[in-house]
Known about the structure:
By secondary structure, the chain is an alpha+beta fold.
Amino acid sequence: xxxxxxxxxxxxxxxxxxxxxKHSRAYLRSxxxxxxxxxxxxxLELNNLSEAGYLKSRENGRTIEYQVNTEHPLYPELRKLVHxxxxxxxxxxxxxxxxxxxxxxxxxxxxxxxxxxGIIDLVLVGDINEQNLQQLVRKAEQAxxxxxxxxxxxxxxxxxxxxxxxxxxxxxxxxx
Length: 176
């Protein structure tokens, strides 16, 4: 979908990295290493996105750290586009809303860091029928063409694992 609209694969990777989770921050060299791209191609796209106002940068010693500019007027729309591309909207519509009592739902792992690895780590908190969940997950996986690993927790289990799960850096999908 995005590949037809945006021809630069590096730009797509950067959009996924920064617009999937507003907490994502990165440096040029770490991005080049993560994407398996040359620093020059990543630098060119970082400069283009920064000049357009989509990314903010700040100096941190001898390096420059980049993150999404949430104040940009197109931020909400680009975020929705990236979430749709990753299939996150499908997870909310076809899994979370059909499970019953879901208090919280968020994504950890690669997708929370803006890496489209093909495996989505979904954490659900609430009173959830796990058999029903597995059926809904299978349908969603077929629709989004990505694997979904789910972890179901009660509220007390979530509170006990709060630091381990690092929810402040997670990609939140639902909170009641």
